[in-house]
Amino acid sequence: MTVAPNARPLTGRAVLALFVLGFGVIIGVNMLLAVSAVRTFPGLEVPNSYVASQEFDARRAAQERLGWQVAASYAPGRLSLSLTDADGRPLRPADLTLDIGRPTEVADELTAVLDMGPDGLGATVSLAPGRWRLDVGATAPDGTRFQKILLIGVPG
């Protein structure tokens, strides 16, 4: 084995510097990803999950007794919503709300204004391609709160 005459020998200091630099890059990238994850996390949904689960079961049972069904479809520029009672008749609750957003982030959230169009109940809205979450809410005449989450896909 021949050594080039101008080659520097690999010393302990150089190995230590390479070791510290390599792990420094790994730790730096991990810290950046952790800070980004925490910054974009929306936070807690409920303060006490046990109490929320007990209330959820009662609300779910009351909502199921209503027998309401909801469906949604999207055509470019128009989001259509169908809400029917247990007999299949269309419903038009006065306090019907529709919140639109992405399933995994809060950046694209918006509240749609529903109107009666030629194809029924809907909203004029432009959705980018991808998966969208629709949060539908209404109150029945007997005071029962109806809530449903629908996921739709917008082709790209």
TrEMBL record:
Domain of life of the source? Bacteria
What InterPro entries does UniProt report for this protein, alphabetically? Answer: FixH, FixH_proteobacterial
Q: What is this protein called?
A: Uncharacterized protein
